[in-house]
Design brief:
- The chain has about 425 residues and is an alpha/beta fold.
- It has 2 domains: about 5-55 and about 370-420, Urease, subunit C, domain 1, CATH 2.30.40; about 60-360, TIM Barrel (Alpha-Beta Barrel).
- Helices cover about 30% and strands about 20% of the residues.
- The longest helix has 18 residues, at about 210-225.
- It is globular.
Length: about 425
């Protein structure tokens, strides 16, 4: 019987009676068997301890691109899961932007088969429409039966309004959710960065905020028509958030996520011409950045997502206008936000955004830190200094602006049932 003892850790779980209390946990054969101030470690048990240890329900990133199958030179499911576990995640929503795309139960089963014996649960996201014909719907019901829990075209916007309407209707009887990437490509297809002063200074074609706002408005109208469940994957503008907040009063099935990059940086970062800042949706204005932080503090934003999108260096080491969009971030999401936004976002809010709300969005079973429950835990230390370097990076990709940065918060371990992953720094 595998035994794990977590010593003297502050519990961060608003659903637990031990919330914000400093206690120890004994995990036996995948279950929390003892919760006490002090626990004598049984023989042959694995002991987890640290200088300022914290533990919460295991985190879920709702939408990550693992590029497998078809683009394994960027990332594959195994390297993606390793990056996820190193970043504190026990579950990952896997986007369907692969080759072939996840358009049938065969692709869903492929993803689930790859997670066997891994500490990270893969949660397949099925495609909404066939890649060859954007007007042809996919086998949503069959994919759901095979294990898909959400449906989306990933970081490709669903341009056809009729297809989006049908998708919202199709998921109603199976209690699934549609993930929308809000972008009106007729307004932004050739854009490189946010449309504004910075794009003018750089001589770049801009992606206007209007592109996101009109796409959000369309999908909100469709949600009202269908009364389905809709999740906006990545929001970047203050006006789009304002629209969603107004609609949330009427639609309980409406949720939204943001990335750490839109909380940390504005479009002025692109003045460096570092192509790693080239992401989509683009970094927006300082006003937008502050509005998103306020949206988190006010409970208007439901989840955080690294929107992990690996790119090969051949696709990033180019002139800015030719480089592909995307940044990796599963391994660094929490440490970088703790470093720069700990005064704006406290640990309880982080856990709501990373663990509690994502499970509700995906209709997953609730996880809480209590006696006689299955262990699904993220353990971190807020006095653990480390440097994010190539040798410590777990993703195959290098498209990040954080290489070489020092952090004072480190993920110590993730536990998922009887599976344990320890990080070495």
């Amino acid at each position: 019987m595998k035994k794990i003892v977590i010593k003297n850790a502050k519990i961060v779980d608003p659903q637990s009676p031990f919330h914000l209390k400093k206690i120890s946990l004994l995990i036996e054969n995948g279950n929390i068997s003892q919760v006490a101030k002090s626990i004598k470690a049984p023989k042959s048990s694995k002991i987890i301890e640290g200088k300022d240890l914290h533990v919460s329900p295991g985190w879920i990133d709702l939408h990550a691109d693992f590029c497998d199958p078809g683009f394994e030179h960027k990332e594959d499911l195994q390297s993606g899961m390793l990056a996820a576990a190193s970043g504190g995640f026990t579950g990952i929503g896997v986007l369907p932007n692969t080759n072939p795309a996840a358009v049938s139960k065969t692709q869903i089963e492929y993803i689930l088969n790859q997670q066997r014996d891994n500490v990270v649960d893969l949660i397949p996201i099925g495609a909404i429409s066939e890649t060859e014909d954007a007007t042809l719907p996919t086998e949503i019901y069959d994919m759901h039966k095979a294990g898909a829990r959400a449906f989306s075209n990933g970081w490709k916007a669903v341009e056809n309004t009729g297809v989006m309407k049908r998708a919202l209707q199709y998921v109603l009887p199976i209690n699934a959710v549609i993930f929308s990437f809000p972008e009106d490509l007729s307004l932004s297809a050739s854009g490189q960065i946010n449309e504004g002063k910075v794009s003018t200074l750089m001589g770049m074609v801009g992606k206007p905020a209007l592109s996101e706002e009109i796409a959000v408005q369309r999908d909100l109208r469709l949600l009202n028509y269908t009364n389905s469940k809709l999740h906006f994957m990545q929001l970047s503008t203050a006006n789009a958030l304002k629209q969603i907040v107004a609609e949330k009063r009427k639609q309980k099935g409406l949720t939204v996520a943001v990335s750490p990059w839109h909380l940390l940086y504005n479009d002025e970062a692109c003045l460096s011409y570092d192509t790693n800042y080239k992401i989509n949706p683009p970094l927006r204005s300082e006003n937008d950045r502050k509005a998103l932080i306020k949206g988190i503090q006010n409970g208007q934003i439901d989840a955080l997502s690294a929107f992990h999108r690996p790119q090969h260096q051949d696709d990033k080491r180019l002139e800015f206008s030719f480089a592909d969009f995307g940044m990796i971030g599963l391994q660094t999401l929490f440490p970088v936000l703790k470093k720069h936004l700990s005064n704006e976002i406290d640990n309880t809010k982080f856990v709501e955004l990373l663990a509690i709300n994502p499970r509700k969005i995906l209709n997953q079973e609730e996880v809480s830190i209590q006696k006689n429950t299955t262990a699904n835990l993220t353990v971190w230390d807020e006095k653990l200094s480390w440097i994010y370097e190539k040798k410590s990076k777990k993703s195959k990709a290098e498209n990040t602006v954080l290489l070489g940065e020092k952090f004072d918060t480190g993920i110590v371990a993730v536990i998922n049932g009887d599976k344990l992953r320890l990080n070495n720094y």
